[in-house]
Amino acid sequence: MTHAFGRTRVLCVIGAATLLITCANTQRLSAQSDEGLQIFGSMQTVFFHQESELTIEGEGLSPWSGTETRNSFAMQQLDLFLRKEMGDDFTAFVDLEFQLNYSSEARWGSLSLQEAWMNYHVSDAFNVKTGLLFPAFNRLNEIKNRLALLPYLFRPLIYERLLSQKFYAEDFVPEHAFIQLYGSIPIGDFFADYAVYTGNAEASYITRQDSRGGIETDINPNFEFLSGVDPTEFKLKLFGGRLGLRTRDENVAFGVSMTHDYNNLRDTTRYPSYTLSRSARQLLGSDAPRIRIGADLAFRHGPLFFETELIKVLYDYERAERLKLEIEQSFAHGMVGYDIFPALTAYVSVQWGDYTFGIDSDYYVYSFGSAYRVNDAITAKAQLIMYEEGYEEEGVTESAFSHDVTIKFVFLGFSILL
Amino acid sequence: MNQLFRISALLAFLAVGVFQAQAQTVVIVNASVPSSTFSVEEVMDVYTLNKTHWDNGARVTVFDLKEGQAKRAFYEYIGMTEDDLQRIWLRKQFTGRARPPHSLSNETELVERVGKTPGGIGYASESAVRGKKNVRIIARLKGAP
């Protein structure tokens, strides 16, 4: 059964690649001259103040608590976009991202290629996008790093790169894909959107360079080739898609999304010991098949707008079932905003995340803030955030233990279009 | 006295009529664009960048005005506000899906650019379009002054 499924996936990928090559060969590039390379971008600068409090309680332990305060200025993120129209049918797009005061000399932050793709437009109802791309999953995934489009400074938990050591976005959403077929079909007052895509296995499967210059891989220690390649077989690749409906004026939009791939449980560095029960540790060192399901809704009525998304990650994993171990992740995010006047927006948002891996970890974020458009290119933003996390092992206790963290953030910053 | 009132009323009526004729806003396309008439929904799809190519496969190039009566009339015609469109354009630009419209300062320049750009579309007062070659009127704004 598994082999048959694997073969079907191989055929799907080969079919899609063949389609792309065929389409590309049957259309010649138009000689129409275009406007050359378009260069644009955005950057966001922040000042943040953080107050953290950690409390640990457990059987046989004296309660412990500690606090920490931190203040920092940062060039949070700078994105440079390059776009080029090549004839009537082809478009290329690149997103180069600099994070957190990037300096290779001082080893600060990061520089990364977030997207680099080519789009082949057959019709508005059918496009083929290929290369490194953000796949369609809910409404936020494709713009998760487009800070200038978002009223807030601190993104929803799973997307926020300042928390990337704590939350792996790929545990909830597909971070990248490599080929996507998509389009929009007008139906009365609506557009129906669809997208299907495939790509590499999740990032932790992909080979990387170790500190001595060798190649590390979690699944095949003999695989020595290049860093940044995915040595997994087809059954571990990402497959997914989204179906959506939106009004022609784009004031109401909703959709459902789904992916299938595997979680790499060999990568033990991702799971701090206090988030894993003893039985959960027996799962480490394997591939856990999972399905990520998403739903999104956004509407705007005059100055009032609302956005929400839900994500549920389900595991179809026999080893976990045998151990009667619950593993799943969930995330929900909702934001209500109001344009007090055209240049000033205020909003409140609530988020909830759940990460159950034997031990039940819950995360809550309450936030409110405002964005003031100084002019067409500059927006001043302010945001107050209350972040809470707690860990609890239900039932009996191998390590009856609870751990709570509360963090208050104040973010002030500017978002600037380049 | 009665006759004077009637003449004044007639002159006022004619003046309003002349003003309306001068300020009638029209949607224009480059002569290369295949369709001859467009519904308001189709024009809105073009300006929300949902329709990026014409039926002959040519890329749509959208022109917009920075300000003015024609702009106000056109936005009212498609039922969108400037903020609505700016938000949509920015999202489509930043996701690489489309290029936002070229924003021009005056109607004369807009009509000229539409005429010179294959696949071009824009809007202007009918008086600014009259006698121009290489552009075709595809819609007259109903109810607009």
Describe it for me?
The complex is a heterodimer of chains A (418) and B (145). Chain A is mostly beta strands and 418 residues long. In chain A, 8% of the residues lie in helices and 56% in strands. Chain A is built from 3 helices and 18 strands. In chain A, the strands form 2 sheets. Chain A has a 16-stranded antiparallel barrel with strand order 1-2-3-4-5-6-7-10-11-12-13-14-15-16-17-18. A two-stranded antiparallel sheet of chain A has the order 8-9. In chain A, strand 15 and strand 16 form a beta hairpin. Chain A is globular. The N and C termini of chain A lie far apart (52 Å). About 3% of the residues of chain A have low confidence. In chain B, 46% of the residues lie in helices and 18% in strands. Chain B has 145 residues and is of the alpha/beta class. Chain B contains 6 helices and 5 strands. Chain B has a 5-stranded mixed beta sheet with strand order 3-2-4-1-5, with helices on both faces. The longest helix of chain B is centred in the N-terminal third of the chain and has 22 residues. The radius of gyration of chain B is 18 Å and the shape is globular. About 6% of the residues of chain B have low confidence. The interface between A and B is medium-sized, with 36 and 25 residues.
